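Continuing the batch. This is chain 6 of the set; chains 1 through 5 are on the previous pages. Same settings as before, nothing changed between runs. Recording input and output for traceability.
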Amino acid sequence: MLNRISLMGRLTRDPELRTIPSGASVASFSLAVDRRFTKQGEEKQTDFIDIVVWRERAEFVHKYFRKGQLVAIDGRLQSRNWEDKHGQKRVSIEVVADNVYFAERKSDSPQGGIAHPSAQNSGADQSAPPFDVDAPSTFAVLDDDDGELPF
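Output for chain 6:
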């Protein structure tokens, strides 16, 4: 069986970071993903998809991602059953992200590279955060000039 999902869209709000009783961090946000095809004469439609990220990735997302940014995620689809405050049974469908990536350059983002408020005074090098959560911290951003590359 296969349960994999890849999405690219814009964050509809800044990621919210929480810590559960076991001490694990969890971040949640919503992703606006445009539908690829629409009927002729109709406006483009957008789906709003809930995303959950755990542990170190959650802290990374909370620190470097913000509303309006274009991101790509890779993960799995999950459903949860719960009861609302009126005792009604509800079901939530969400994506549990295994990997979260920047999908645009900082200068191309709607905020023009403004740092996330929670990243202020963190002591981290905000000029070149890693593009991939799994990338080593020494990852450097290359300039657009590729004249010295051998290929």
